[in-house]
Fold these 2 entries.
Entry 1:
Amino acid sequence: MILHPGVLGLLIGGAVVVALMVVGSLVGLQILRAWDPSSSSENQLALERRTYLVSALVGVALWIEIGSALLFVHTAEDLHELFVGAMCATGSLNANPVGWWVLATKGAMVLLFPVWLALNGLDQRAGDYPVVRLKYGLLVVLTPIALADLVLQIQYFRGIRPDIITSCCGSLFSESGDHLTSDLASVPAAGALPLFGLASAIFLAALAWARFGRRPVSMGVVAVLAPVILGIGIASIISFVSVAYYELPTHHCPFDLFQGSSRYVGYPLLISLVTAVVSAALPGILHPLARRSDLDGLVAKSEKKWLTVSVAAYSVFLVFAVWPLVFGNLALELM
Amino acid sequence: MRRHFRILDFALASLRRRRLKNWAIVAVYAFTVTIVSSVLLLTNAIRQEAALLLVGAPELTVQRVVGGRHAPIAVEVTETIATLPGVVEAQPRYWGYTYDAVTDSTITVIGAGPGSAELEMVEGRLPEHSTECAVGAGVAAMWGAEVGGEVILIDASTTGVLYEVVGTFAAPSDILTNDLVVMTGDEAALFLGLPEGWATDLAVRIANPAEVDTIATKIKRAFPDSRPITRSEVLRTYDAVFHWRSGMMLAMLSGGLIAFAILAWDKATGLSAEERKEIGILKAVGWDTGDVLELKMWEGVVISVTSLLLGLIAALIHVFLLGAPLLTPVLRGWSVLFPELHPVPHIDPYLLVSIAFLTVVPYVAATVAPSWKAAITDPDSVVRG
């Protein structure tokens, strides 16, 4: 199955990301080994110049990886036509379960990369490279994930054959199965919708508190809430948002939202939720850096920006999640 | 934000200053995009054509297999199949090929009937008597046959048979009807030399698509020498084959892609003395390495977007206006009477992303390090010469 245009694109993208990350990490390690900010030697100057190379390499790798994550979802979606029993990306991923691991590594990259980018932005704007060690330390964690992602992708695409009979979303996201997904699908809208509303209200209130109050504890609260909101957001999509879009009470598959028949609404839902969660988590994660005198002002400015982005992105997510409930033809039983 | 726009503005001016070099890169880049996009657009168009072709096809086709080869099937089998729950109707189909030595082409002969494809008459009607036939657009053009005229076809016993042309037809898909001659069912059976009571295969209509596989299993159980083929199986096979063909083409083009990436690397590395001086002066007046890197990035974006758009436009003209003369023999196969392909222009966002991944990603990756190399130019050494 390697000879599919989307698959070739993904593999070229994956290989380029790994190449950029490996070169970036090697240069990063070289910098770490001889880094001495107090020195004004020629060697230190050369190292400082090399930090720009690492930033450029990893920055490009990040954007390719984000595009690659979306391309992977769509390619899995496109491939389903080749399998007996598959109706969407779930079927393609079930055709070789390694696919779920690819999805996991891509998810990890998309969630971790922005942290690196934020660190890099602070570092470059500060002028005296205050977080070089932290930045390149994180790079050493990210590179193996990029490598694992490429290896798993190759394994996945090599392992899927059109003669495999696969099971699709009907069984994975059914209300009667014994998977976690089935548990999520069987959560009644009457319970899930109020929980989603309450969680969203708390999250937005916490974001506003952090944005205007600017206390360290508020940033911490938002950072803790962020993964919870990610979980509740995904559970809500499976439990009632998907149902409302399909106007079919028994169909809970989130992957069908990425199909043309659902007007590709899965993409804005996913992108806005991930953007909201990541930019909400950033202030809490990077706030400790504000204690450094050279970063204080920069961190404060960036935190404001991230929190504003988070509020905007979560509002977009809410609009897309609530739209079919308000304007759709399916009336969910809430009482 | 204004700062970024100003750097973009500077990048555009800088690209204009080195017009010749940049147009050379854009030309090669756009050519690469054209080739990759043509392959993907054409394959997509053929897949859609195939899907269109199968819209009117029966849900299930039943063939008989003898010694692993397709053999005629007894018409009486339809009676048993028609009694299966879920089957709307089962009809025999008579079709086959005949070779026309005069035009050196192979023609498909098919019996008119409920099992044959949906045909839209351009002129005249379908045949009703054994001496009549209707012809497809390609056959009509090749023989110069018109309604009311006559054609001679060579039957199974190599005897020439005279038919009156009573109609010409078109169908949603050229692939289906171009080389087609339609006769009455009985005449087609006789012409193709099928024994009485035997058909080429059977067309089975099934109301509920969810029951197709079960009915196919039941038919296989009742007639072990039969081979039921579902419509979705045929569609899946088409998809797999054309994906594979386009993937194969792209794999063959990978050498070109690598050459293109090397060219991009080379062009980005080979800074002229003038460019080095320019960067040196920029840094001397206060630009830092990050600003110069951003300038280089914007230059890359402008070159990529221009080449992508030019390449895509060229590919759209090549595939949808000219009928992809450079690629059709490889991707579609060949025959004397192959229909001209006039695919409906359709751009899938997924294709655009795939094209970008196959062309822009290698270009960007190849230019990162040279851009950095240019950005760290030391102003002192450059300005002093």
Entry 2:
Amino acid sequence: MTQKSLFDDADTPALTAVRIHPDFTSWQQRARQLLLDEVPPQRVWWQADETQSRAIATAGNANIRVPKPFLTQARAASCHRNGDRWALLYHLLWRMTHGEHHLMALSSDPLVVQLHYYAKAVSRDVHKMKAFVRFRAVDGADGDPRYIAWFEPDHYIVEYAAPFFQRRFANMCWSILTPDCCAHWEGRGEVWFSAGADKAAAPGDDLVEETWRCYYRSIFNPARVKIQAMLSEMPQKYWKNLPEARLIPELVRESGNRVDTMTNEVKTAEQLRCGPRPAAPEQTLNDAIQHSEPGSIQQLALAAQKCRNCPLWQPATQTVFGAGPVPAPIMLIGEQPGDQEDLTGKPFVGPAGALLNHALTAAGLRRDELYITNTVKHFKFRARGKRRLHERPREEEIQACAPWLAAEIDQVQPDIIVCLGATAAQAQLGQGMQVTRDRGKVITRQGRHYLITVHPAYLLRNGESPHDLERFVADLQVAARHLQLLRSP
Amino acid sequence: MDLIEKLAILADAAKYDASCASSGTDAKNSSTGRGVGSTEGMGICHSYAPDGRCISLLKILLTNYCIYECSYCVNRNSSNVQRARFTVDEVVSLTLDFYKRNYIEGLFLSSGVIRNADYTMEQLVAVARALREEHDFRGYIHLKTIPDADGALLAAAGRYADRLSINIELPTQQALADLAPEKDQRTIKLSMARIRARRDEAVADREDWRRQSRRSEKGKPSAFAPAGQSTQMIVGAEPSTDAQILQTSSELYAGYGLRRVYYSAFSPIPDASLRLPVRQPPLLREHRLYQADWMMRFYGYTADEITQSAEPGRAPGMLSLEVDPKLGWALANRGFFPVDLNRDSRARLLRIPGIGVKSVDRILKMRRFHKVRLEDLVAMRAGVKKAMPFVVCANHHPSLNELDSDRLRIRYTPSAQQLSLW
């Protein structure tokens, strides 16, 4: 930083020199006392040096409250190399406790900007340390290897970053040497710190680095050289301590030739080199159709998986065919599968299905004795963020699916067909059908009996009112009674 | 063949998979275990190759033998590349050796298909099992899932891996049928659906467990692929448009809870198929797709909005290469602007070119205390110059003239020279 510090205020009389050890806790302890003594920031001259003794953390004071984001940012900013950080932090603290409790919300305030700037520089430095530390293994005292790294951070971050390495390499013995401070871990106890070291104190090589360089060389794609992108994340100042970086100039230099070689390659005829190719999925499906009983419902269901009569197959996961015994006395027809049905391939397994199960039981019907299907066999939806929103099928989509439903009815030969909702009712009995008007009574067309009721999803949308649910159950009971009537001699 | 030779072949074979992420998984570390490793949510890129890509994981194939014949793939059955196969122990020791030296966050293991889907998947799971159970490895594991593999194998994979992925490869079924005849969208989507269902189940089990008043760590239900699933689409190998690509992405995000869709510009490979001659990878197009993807996930745009706005000189269904898609949308929808920084909703603020999610959230907080002025944007280092014609604030009103001017577009259009990539 070349700019003049924001906190130089030479004219202020009666400057108090405050000496601390340069660590967050020491600053925190003194700052707390200064606040209690109502010493304004203009009167404090922070002097941090290593010779001062470290303060020990104590419990906070109930009268001083600061927002958590400040604490997090301040802790990070306290590792910045610039000497004015202690004054900055105290100034912010003062303002926050003197009428500007909301200070952290003012992202354009010069001091807040400065805090963000320091905190960001430090967290980037820490992030790069986590990324670019390279351990080299040496034989340790008790025969186990000791892992030693040399790293040159921009800021005073070793103590701040050490717990990360402790959690990650908890069962190894390691040391991270830097010019300012060194961290050591013995596989148990606590991380301990020692004074800064020389690069010469770190080991010069590790055999695994040759393997690592082989990986680095091989994972690079010479056809998409983007040096700026690499440099912005891995600036050259880090290269000297990265064993793989020495390959970079050569890899860049060779890349043009490598691409040319690929481009100019003379191709010969293609032949298989890894044995016979497996059958394509479509072939597998066709085989399954071939091998299933001709004209059976199983064969129909398999054939429907290939259906492309309308465009709905493309976004959907799969065709959701009907399920249940064949033949069956009652056939339930809904509108179309929903999210859960599309994922599992089974009709009425989602929330509407759960409600349907409940209503069937209440009406004295057993789901496993019914055949349940839909008018349209693919889920029609609109993708919205992390959700798929149901969309009503259009007439041509209903028409496109009609042959499948006709074939199902033909196989199932139900005594009565229950249409759940308008789509099913209109598809079976014509556009003139209205659920509210025509529900709950047996309608006979060309020798087949139908009953119209609401779709369970309608009940879900209406908050499952007890009245609506009762009427739904009552409608289903009409079907059950009709069945008894048909069967009584 | 020694280990280094195998590594050279099997890392080279894996480099066309763009994903190398190690973020967004459960927190775990080795202080309670006997092995190494930790994951703390944020991914770490341990190195960068000169292709600008992050190296976070040891990304390798178990083997590059493959019975499939996908035209775009360097490992396809008929490719004349050298083949190799790692043993389980070799992958395990490479991973641990690299991890202990802090080169990587973990392993991304994929494989060519050998014999059949189940056999291949079994091999991948064996590596993950050895790392987790024998070595108590607590770093990141990403396993490629072979579509159609058995449910029990998938369950095991999800138990050991942080992330699972299945590549959709190409945006349409037609493109797959043409270029990857052994694959089809139905099988791929069914596998994605299975992973989503198992993840939903595991998340629900965790919730139930959390609600128990007397819960023990022992009874804690195990997670299933806590970092979710991702996929990859190859861009530029066949004529699909950006609109088709983004439509497919939005369906995958919505349907299967994908964390990420990666876009990979089709890149020259050695011994390329006669059907797909070598050409320069469309890197800028790939970049625009990532920007558009970001807009869908974090800025509330739909795929249609991004690709359907009429702009001069743009091929139908394609994103502009000249301006980024957010600016492109703003230029094509000038009636939407200006947006008032002091009054408008978060959703509207998010559509201002040059202003990101972080800046929007800062503006919302700030404006509770004072009127937002242009200087505030400058201090926050938001993209003021880009945003200016589109915003109203306490001391700035763009002239209507400016907002409607055709010159506005020209102002943002870089000269052809700046466009060239190298």
